[in-house]
Amino acid sequence: MTLAAQILATTIILTTPILLAAIGGLVNRQGGIVNIALEAKMIAGAFIAIVVSSATGSWLLAVFASAALGGAIGYVFSLTITRANANMIIAGLGLNILVAGLLGFLLSRVYGTSGTLRLPDVHLLPKIFPESVSDVPLIGPVLAALDPLTLFAWLAVAALPFLLANTRLGLRLRAAGNAPQVVRSVGLREKSIQDFGTVFAGIFSGLAGAHLSLASIGLFNEGLSAGRGFIALAAFYFARNRPVGTALVCLFFGFLDASQIRLQTAGLPPKLIGTLPYLMVILGLCLAAWNTKRKLQA
Amino acid sequence: MSDHVNTDAMPADGLAAMVRRGLDGTLRFVVPIGIAFAVGAVLLLAIGENPLETYSLMLSEAFSSQRRFAATLSAATPLLFTAVATAICFRTGVFNVGVDGAFILGGLAAATFGVMLPMSIGWWIIPLSIGAAMLVAAFWLWIPGVLLARLDVDEVVSTLMLNFVALGIAGFLVNGVLLSETSGNNTTETIHSTAELSRLVPPSTLHSGFLLGLACVFAYALWSSVTPAGFEARLVGLNKRFARAVGISIPSTIIVVMVISGLVAGLGGASHALGQVHKFSDGFSAGYGFTGMAVALLARNSALGIVFGAILFGALASAGTTIQLFSDIPLDIVNVIEGTVMIFAVVELGKLTLWRKGKRP
Fold first, then answer.
1. Where would a tag sit more exposed on chain B, N or C end, judged by fewer CB atoms within 10 A?
2. Beta carbons of B343 and A95 less than 8 Å apart
3. pTM confidence score
4. Is residue A281 part of a domain?
5. Is the pLDDT at B216 greater than 90, yes or no?
6. Window B:227-286, CB contacts with A under 8 Å
7. Beta carbons of B85 and B264 less than 8 angstroms apart
8. Number of structural domains, chain B?
């Protein structure tokens, strides 16, 4: 029983960065922009979180800095797409390479290190409940592991269906994604609405990065995001942009991540397990396409 | 139906139009590079280096002697293949971002054959290894091709995701059944010496794969400019409805270009495995698929542009390594330049696009 609770707790924590990025990406996509550059904002967020946390001793300031940096990168990225008509896929792939290059450059020239950045006095994310809570049966370890960003992510998942369906901004965002001409014809600027979506995605990816570096390890590494931005992409594609569905898929991916070591000892190769999210999204797209085709023929 | 779409049917271009197109292409090649180097210069200034000095050092490191030029061409070699593989799809309007995965699996197949085939078959080992690589990579890109052609599954997502799957499969194999018994982790055995592609100017690593790459670019130029199939593919890329109306089968065109793209990517992987590294290990592709994409974008899918672009990025990579050693400027500046080039190759910059509004990648 304790083993299951342990895995569950690890799952929850490993899900958070994927979930945060996926929330950002799905909002962005509802607004009509496929954001391939979640990874770039995530890794930038992870980096700035360590720097700010070490400099100020405040995890909260670090988290805000990550959100701000992610949002700022998102805004510039959005301008290249909405104002300069850049192809969003190419611009996104380019941004991933550019940001990775800039960070590597900074690390080796400013910090004199290659790959890993360790700074003194990094303050990690606090736990929400005191440690004694882990004595609670079943969900104790999960409660003990909860941090503010994880809580925030799940609150966002809970609020998002309402926000997208019932608020003015949510409706406008979805309209900008589905029928930009309509948005324009009622006198709204669909490009600005889309920019909002990309900034939102940037902020959430930045937060995802902050969680990666500040949840437990307290250092920055160039490989820290390890493709999680793309796993997030797989999650909201698989769940077809639905917030709760996306969250469940993220949870499953987090579970794969958490149980990897145990699956490995059970003889399942970790490298192949790691491809599962990507295979799932391809399969999901095929099934969806198959369905549409059948309906069209019927 | 190919006789209906003869290249003669193209509107005759006046000389002025040709000059304008050539100028347009040159500007679209030069401007993103200029901006990228400017970004790099700002970065160099920020760390107190003189950008002009650095760039001229890089220039001489890349081209100033036979040995250095050979190193540049050697670094350009994989890019020739990946850029052609990308351009074939892009000009058909198929957004294939999965060349990297096909390159990796091709390299893995070639290295495996280069290790496993018996030495006694002599030089046959090379064509067999290359053939295996091409088959594997062609099959790999055939999958998203069929999914797009038959089910309309978004090829951007499928090919992007397949890159990670390819990495996973390769990682699994080189840590498992193909793992070398002698040389540690994440790598196959070294291939037989008979499987190695010949070196062109020893001691440089420039190998005959470079010539294969040039041949690929040349074949691509022929395919795209004089063959009916290449012309049909271009029509599909320019206007699907028109292409359908003149009787071109869109699904089969898509599948064909994806398979060709896979063949070229696989050949590139084989060239890299048999000519450059002589084995397959984790990190086999240093993002060659994506750099190749940057090259294809810069070149606007033109064959000549691909050669120039590949040499440019080859020069950056080989000179970048040297200046990292000697003047402590991080190699990452090459990535900064590459990323900026990609972004600005697709950004529409005012006047640049007044001449021709194309929505192609």
1. N
2. yes
3. 0.89
4. no
5. yes
6. none
7. yes
8. 1
